[in-house]
Specification:
The chain is 48% helix and 16% strand. The mean pLDDT is 94. The protein contains 9 helices and 8 strands. The longest helix is centred in the last third of the chain and has 15 residues. It has 214 residues and is of the alpha/beta class. A 5-stranded parallel sheet has the order 2-3-1-4-8, sandwiched between helices. It has a 3-stranded antiparallel sheet with strand order 6-5-7. The N and C termini lie close together (7 Å). The structure holds BIS(adenosine)-5'-pentaphosphate. BIS(adenosine)-5'-pentaphosphate binds next to helix 1, helix 2, helix 3, helix 6 and strand 6.
């Protein structure tokens, strides 16, 4: 079935982890604005240079930059039969821009996780510098220490995962992104999943929510 999905949730709620399951299970491309921006920073592109300061301080990159990135990515052929948006939209302005551009959303799935659990997750997260896959030193360790199971790349700690920046990101989430919960609820598109369970249990709930769309 054709599906355009959004994964909503606080930083560290497990959006990237669930996207990894879903891309394998549903064969849909995923669009992570965080990954696109980090790649742009690594390459030193004009967008990367602009985004760097926002990301390292835990603030949101301006809407006009994000909207441009997303429209360009969604116009590519692999998105014709559906896609998963990870970490976007993140403001009402971004969600309205998607609507104005005629981009239909099938469902927005909220991964609901309390803030204290988020802080623990971020402290143990490791990210592959090659493919962006995420691990956790306790809940999802790689087979070989500091080496990505998927591509053999080195695993590192993201700079914006230090505790102080995580607290800023959570504050920004509650102020600027949480209003999207009501935005999609009012449109009858919201599904809430308990994201505090294990990755596999959370994935089972996400799949259950998707079954209701048939
Ligand atoms: P982005 O990269 O999107 O980061 P985020 O939304 O803050 O989310 P994360 O990637 O940190 O976490 P996640 O929810 O994917 O969790 P994960 O699966 O890794 O954005 C970074 C920055 O870019 C932003 O701060 C902003 O500056 C900018 N930006 C990006 N998009 C933007 C936009 N649209 N507008 C404006 N600015 C934008 O899981 C976290 C950890 O927990 C991992 O270690 C994982 O293994 C573990 N874990 C996951 N699930 C579970 C589970 N169920 N149980 C136990 N452990 C788990």
């Amino acid at each position: 079935m054709f599906m355009n999905l959004i994964l909503l949730g606080a930083p560290g709620a497990g959006k990237g982890t669930q996207v990894e399951f879903l891309t394998k299970e549903r064969g849909l491309p995923s669009i992570s604005t965080g990954n696109i921006l980090r790649a742009a920073i690594k390459e030193g592109t004009p967008i990367g240079l602009k985004a760097q300061e926002y990301i390292s301080s835990g603030r949101l990159v301006p809407d006009e930059v994000i909207i441009g990135i997303v429209k360009e990515r969604l116009s590519q052929k692999d998105c014709e039969n559906g896609f998963i948006l990870d970490g976007v939209p993140r403001t009402i302005g971004q969600a309205e821009a998607l609507e104005k551009a005629g981009i239909e959303i099938t469902a927005a799935i909220l991964l609901d996780v309390p803030d204290n659990m988020i802080e623990q997750r971020m402290a143990g997260r490791r990210t592959c510098i090659g493919c962006g896959a995420t691990y956790h030193v306790v809940t999802k360790p790689p087979k070989k220490e500091n080496v990505c199971d998927e591509c053999g790349g080195e695993l590192t700690r993201r700079k914006d995962d230090d505790p102080e920046t995580v607290r800023t990101r959570l504050k920004v989430y509650h102020e600027e992104t949480e209003p999207l919960v009501d935005f999609y609820r009012e449109r009858g598109k919201l599904f809430v999943v308990d994201g505090s369970r294990s990755p596999e249990e959370t994935n089972a709930q996400v799949l259950e929510a998707l079954e209701k769309l048939k």
